[in-house]
Amino acid sequence: xxxxxxxxxxxxxxxxxxxxxxxxxxxxxxxxxxxxxxxxxxxxxxxxxxxxxxxxxxxxxxxxxxxxxxxxxxxxxxxxxxxxxxxxxxxxxxxxxxxxxxxxxxxxxxxxxxxxxxxxxxxxxxxxxxxxxxxxxxxxxxxxxxxxxxxxxxxxxxxxxxxxxxxxxxxxxxxx
Length: 176
Hints:
Layout: H1 3-16, E1 21-24, H2 26-31, E2 40-46, H3 50-59, E3 62-67, E4 71-76, E5 83-89, H4 91-100, E6 102-105, E7 111-114, H5 117-130, H6 135-146, H7 153-162, H8 166-175
Parallel strand pairs: 2-5
Antiparallel strand pairs: 1-2, 3-4, 4-5, 6-7
């Protein structure tokens, strides 16, 4: 997948419509200096933009594989264009995440907003709660985030507690 091309195209559309977005998933970890293999582009966007984003993805030739209030997944028939997944957020969560995001070099050096590490961890904790099959990969990613300089471990611990996964956080803490 040409991550730079896909991200530049989608980001331009989102910005032209005065919407906010941020890079999440494996490419966000790479932006923090910890690359890992991935086959898709993951973005977090405002819920209010869901309909226009899905229509835009359709116009680019993507097939919408799944859509709910919180997520949509899109696959292009051309494998070099690949798959793009969106996480939709609103309200206070949106305000907090986007106000704390910083622009960093992403794929191909493209400057992109990335949530602060604590917010990336919060998204991964929620993903583990909703889909326990993701636990081992998400814990490995959170472990990387916990090791970043200046990260607020107490904030991350709070997200684990909020979702009934405090024991998982304690396991991570012991492994550091």
